[in-house]
Specification:
There is one protein chain. By secondary structure, this protein is α+β, with helices and mostly antiparallel strands. It folds into two domains: 4-183, Fructose-1,6-Bisphosphatase, subunit A, domain 1 (Fructose-1,6-Bisphosphatase, Chain A, domain 1), CATH 3.30.540.10; 194-321, D-Maltodextrin-Binding Protein, domain 2, CATH 3.40.190. The chain has seven helices and 15 strands. The strands form three sheets. It has an eight-stranded mixed sheet with strand order 4-3-5-6-7-8-9-10, with helices on both faces. A hairpin with a 4-residue loop joins strand 9 and strand 10. The longest helix has 23 residues, at 15-37. The protein is globular and about 60 Å long. The model has no long low-confidence stretch (mean pLDDT 97). The structure holds 6-O-phosphono-beta-D-fructofuranose and manganese (II) ion (MN). Residues 103, 106, 236, 270 line the site of manganese (II) ion.
């Protein structure tokens, strides 16, 4: 089976980017190990602190963030980091060529129930003019990413990644520590009959979302003329992984619970990297008003509504916004 390195070379990734990705993944392998130790290592449960998003941090959020920060800071390839678990940009090597953004442990509330969690990351070029502690350098649209991916800590540890030449899925062979290419060039099926949304928020949704979901629920007798199935992992990595494997539509729309926030998911750490993976696999990723990867960020922790997945289904959903 092909190894990650040769696939990245085949896709034309520059050497320094390959080395950076390998470094980042060394951190993810350590997270994979820590996560698998669970209660035996005393890593489950919450800390007493909140992150900048106002969420109580799990111990594993803090551990994962520290592992990635340490390994990337030392690498020499990275000028600065932005992380969901850091208030501000983390300056690294002034000579580093790249910026890395990450959600160190997506879906971390799932740690309590031994369910799916993962690390989501994206990489962009660091502008030459940039001081390593300048958040303005991160305010680039997602279309500028040079690589993005996630590592899913599930029954297998899997990596889904793109360097802009398709989306490939690899499985970590824990006997020798290598990521092996198990699903080359994945394609999200254009048609689907499966949707993912946290339906408990229904009363807070806006009219287009309410109408769209109600039409899906109407099944064969409704305007869509077919029966739909619903899935919700409560970890975006798990839901997006299912979409890459068998299609579907995933939504975390704007809702009126916190009217001044434009959604729950974070543009830099969640929406952009997932949009890149889905688009490279032939799917679509939108905010409802336009392509996620064209949103110009105004601040590093910005949130955004997310609708992504199978092309025909995302288009059908977007027609309700027109
Ligand atoms: O990181 C945010 C996140 O945990 C996503 O991974 C997931 O899709 C979503 O929030 C779950 O939201 P909720 O708590 O509404 O189910
Ligand atoms: Mn997350």
């Amino acid at each position: 089976m092909k190894r990650l390195n040769s696939q990245m070379q085949q896709d034309g990734a520059p050497l320094e980017l390959i080395l950076l990705i390998r470094t980042l993944l060394a951190g993810c392998k350590e997270i994979s190990f820590r996560v698998s130790q669970g209660a035996l290592a005393g890593v489950l449960g919450s800390t007493l602190s909140e992150n900048v998003q106002g969420e109580t941090q799990k111990k594993l959020d803090v551990i994962s963030n520290q592992i990635l920060k340490d390994i990337l800071k030392e690498s020499g390839y990275v000028k600065a980091i932005s992380s969901e678990e850091e208030d501000d940009v983390v300056p690294c090597d002034p000579e580093g060529k790249y910026l890395v953004s990450f959600d160190p442990l997506d879906g971390s509330s799932n740690t309590e129930i031994n369910s799916l969690i993962g690390t989501i990351f994206s990489i962009a070029h660091a502008p030459q003019w940039m001081e390593p502690n300048d958040p303005a350098a991160f305010l680039q649209p997602g279309s500028q990413m040079v690589a993005a991916g996630y590592v899913l800590y599930g029954p297998s540890t899997m990596l889904a990644m793109t360097t802009g030449k398709g989306t490939h899925i690899y499985t970590l062979d824990k006997t020798h520590g290598g990521f092996l290419l198990t699903h080359p060039n994945v394609q999200v099926p254009e048609l689907t009959a499966e949707f993912s949304i946290n339906a408990s928020n229904q009363r807070h949704w806006e009219p287009p979302v309410k109408q769209y979901i109600s039409d899906l629920l109407a099944g064969e007798e409704g305007p869509r003329g077919k029966n739909y199935n619903m899935r919700w992992v409560a970890a975006m990595v798990g839901d997006v992984h299912r979409l890459l494997c068998r299609g579907g539509i995933f939504m975390y729309p704007y809702d009126k619970r916190e009217p001044d926030k434009p959604g729950k998911l974070r543009l830099l750490y969640e929406a952009n990297p997932m949009a890149f993976l889905i688009e490279q696999a032939g799917g679509l990723a939108s905010t409802g008003a336009g392509r996620i990867m064209e949103v110009m960020p105004e601040e590093i922790h910005q949130r955004v509504p997310v609708i992504l997945g199978s092309k025909d289904e995302v288009e059908a959903c977007l027609s309700y916004y027109d």
